[in-house]
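Why does residue order matter? Because the sequence determines the fold. Keep that principle in mind as you read this record.
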Amino acid sequence: MTDTIPDHVDAPSTSHPPIPSSLVAPPPETEDFSRQVGEIFRRLSLAAETFPSQAFSRIVGTVLVALGKAVLEEAEHQAAGLRTRTAPAHPGIKVSASARRVDFDGWDPGDSDSR
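Structure:
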């Protein structure tokens, strides 16, 4: 009897440990600030239990970089919104509540073609 190796032999387990599905699940859809922050800490704690310390340090570094990038993008988004609200009005007739009110009779005293 000859021993044959089947095609589906598993390679030795030298790859990463099994990753809990809750680490890669999409974020919960909630408006609760405490729940969102708690989810970040829960996943970081789970990652600390799952991976060795060097890998966990890389994970934390990546999370901090992603957080910084998200903060900068949000700041740019808010600044763009502020710029559009404070941009000067388009040229043309300006109407405001504090406009100078004068009676206009059509005659300009600075006109050289005076009456």
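The CA atoms of residues 11 and 72 lie 43 Å apart.
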